[in-house]
Amino acid sequence: MDAKKVVVIEDDPDILELIEYNLRREGFEVATAISGRSGLSVIGREKPDIVLLDLLLPGLDGLDVCRRLRSVATTRDVPVIMVTARGEERDVVEGLAAGADDYVHKPFSPRELIARVRAVLRRGPLRERDPERRVIRGALEIDPVKHRVRIDGRHLELTPTEFRLLHVLASQPGRVFTRPQLVDRAIGDRVVVIDRNIDVHVRAVRKKLAAHRDLIETVRGIGYRFHEDEAWRRS
Prior knowledge:
Helix content is 39%, strand content 22%. The protein is α/β, with parallel strands linked by helices.
């Protein structure tokens, strides 16, 4: 199996060295950059499998880099993990809204970082490439073709919005979705809705999941994610 290639964009030399060392030790190929503009050049040349992106970069910051990656067809689906200072929830929300797939808080442990990289690589791009395939997640089964949800063999009666919301979250367990992202994916432009209405829909889905309500986790100040510890598969 070919080694996965990572581009790390980080302007702190000590953090950059730490990240590069631990990635190489785990068998990844690594290319680095210390600014946003040079990072874009490295990404264009290296065509990485994933990008680790600091938010606070000289010149072109991490948010702008992420937006540019998402605006170009050749890099639109390259996973991005942003690296941000601890507790800066606004930066996390903005980064996810700009197209980042996940985030890691500074300071971080090398073990956590590697785990996040592997998890994002497993999950794949943010856009669903095959939205009609069934999602089976433990006791939960979602069939988008038949528009049917079962859990523990019990059929769940969901509204169309609740169905789309659950399908989006369960399709990519562990991935954090902001409220605006869920509005876009689960509700779309057919209805005028505010971001916080998503909370109402989440409460309704959790109530119907009953004993499995904790499958949908709240990420405080950011949004929601589907629990990822149990084995899951798409068939």
